[in-house]
Design goal:
There is one protein chain. Helix content is 41%, strand content 22%. Strand 4 (102-108), helix 5 (117-127) and strand 5 form a beta-alpha-beta unit. It is globular and about 45 Å long. The longest helix has 18 residues, at 15-32. Helix 2 (15-32) runs parallel beside helix 8 (193-201). It has 9 helices and 7 strands; from the N terminus they run ααβαβαββαβααβααβ. By secondary structure, the chain is of the alpha/beta class. It has a 7-stranded mixed β-sheet, with helices on both faces.
C-alpha cells in the first residue's frame, strides 16, 4: 500500500519521531563519515529526510524511490532549502543507474519494503565503486518495537507495515559483508517526552548491554 506523505513527514515532528530521528541520524552519519564532495545515493529516499541532510553536509546526492508522491515532496523540500539534489523514480531491484557511479550508498527504513532483498543487495553493490561503502538502517526484527509493529499491523488494515519485512543482523549478514553494526532506540512510542529524554541520555550504555535489541539496526558494509 502507498504511504501518506503528509503523515510520514508529520511523524518526525512527534516527540518519539524527533527522538528516533536524532538517534538514527547520529548512528548513520557516524558510519558514513565525512561526506563532503562524495557522490552518495540515497536508496528509498522517501520525502528527502536523509538526501537533504547529506546535501547540507556537502555531498553530491542522488535520491531514488519507487513512490512519485514521495519524490514530489522531496523535490519541493530540496528546492525550498536551496539544495541541488537529483531525484529519480525507480525500484531497488532494478535501478536506472550506471555501475560504479557512487562513493557510498545509504538506505534508511526502506529495505523493509523491497520486494526482493537479494536482488536489491546485488543492485546496491553494482552501483557503488569497488571500494564503496553501504550504510543501511532498518527496523530491527529482534526489538520490542519491531514485534509491536508487526503485531499491530495485523489488526490495522491501513498499516504501512502490514507487508513489511523486518530484518535482524543475521538477515543482513546473508546479503552484505558487514564490517560494523549497532542498534539504537530503546524507548517505545507511547512514552512521554520526559521519559524519552532519559532514554536518549542512556542510549549509549543501553546499546552496549542490549546490542541486538534496539529498535533501529544500522550496518556498515563494503563491496
Amino acid at each position: 500500500m502507498s504511504i501518506n506523505t503528509k503523515k510520514y513527514d508529520e511523524w518526525f515532528c512527534t516527540p518519539f519521531g524527533a527522538y528516533a530521528d536524532r538517534l538514527e541520524k547520529s548512528l548513520i552519519f557516524r558510519y558514513l563519515g565525512d561526506v563532503r564532495g562524495k557522490r552518495i545515493l540515497d536508496l528509498g529516499c522517501g520525502t528527502g529526510n536523509y538526501a537533504i541532510e547529506l546535501a547540507r553536509r556537502g555531498a553530491i546526492v542522488t535520491g531514488i524511490d519507487a513512490s512519485m508522491d514521495m519524490l514530489d515532496t522531496a523535490m519541493e523540500k530540496a528546492k525550498a532549502a536551496g539544495l541541488q539534489i537529483a531525484f529519480l523514480e525507480g525500484r531497488a531491484e532494478e535501478m536506472p543507474l550506471k555501475a560504479g557511479s557512487f562513493d557510498a550508498l545509504v538506505s534508511v527504513t526502506a529495505c523493509e519494503f523491497f520486494g526482493d532483498m537479494r536482488m536489491a543487495a546485488g543492485e546496491m553493490k553494482r552501483v557503488i565503486k569497488p571500494d564503496g561503502k553501504i550504510v543501511i538502517g532498518t527496523i530491527n526484527k529482534l526489538s520490542l518495537y519491531g514485534v509491536e509493529k508487526k503485531i499491530s499491523s495485523i489488526y490495522k488494515k491501513e498499516s504501512s507495515y502490514r507487508n513489511a519485512r523486518f530484518n535482524s543482523i543475521f538477515e543482513m549478514r546473508r546479503f552484505f559483508d558487514v564490517i560494523k553494526w549497532k542498534t539504537t532506540i530503546f524507548a517505545l512510542p507511547w512514552m512521554p517526552k520526559r521519559v524519552l529524554a532519559v532514554f536518549e541520555k542512556s542510549d549509549l550504555p543501553l546499546s552496549l548491554f542490549l546490542k541486538p535489541c534496539g529498535a533501529f539496526l544500522a550496518i556498515e558494509a563494503r563491496n
